[in-house]
Automatic annotation (TrEMBL):
Record's protein name: Uncharacterized protein
UniProt-annotated stretches for the region Disordered: 73-92
Recorded superkingdom: Bacteria
Source organism of the structure: Lentzea albida
Amino acid sequence: MDAFVELSAELTGFSAEELRSTGLVEQYRALADGASEAEIIELWYTGVWRGVIPTERAYAEGLAWKAVGVAAPGTSAPGFGSWERRPRRSAR
């Protein structure tokens, strides 16, 4: 297993497969070269690197949204009549 993914999985509590499914491993590995553990956690959870969102995908794939079981605001339409349904409960 890739050392960066292994470390990231340990730091974030998400599996290597979940991290790979974001499609951001290569980009984050390049950004996080020499970064602290806190910076790596922040990058994965928020999609922000040193005050900048590197791509729209980084924002949308932030682990904070996955942890609470919702899509990042502005990234997916809930659909007509969605206000009538209770929010889903996260499995986490």
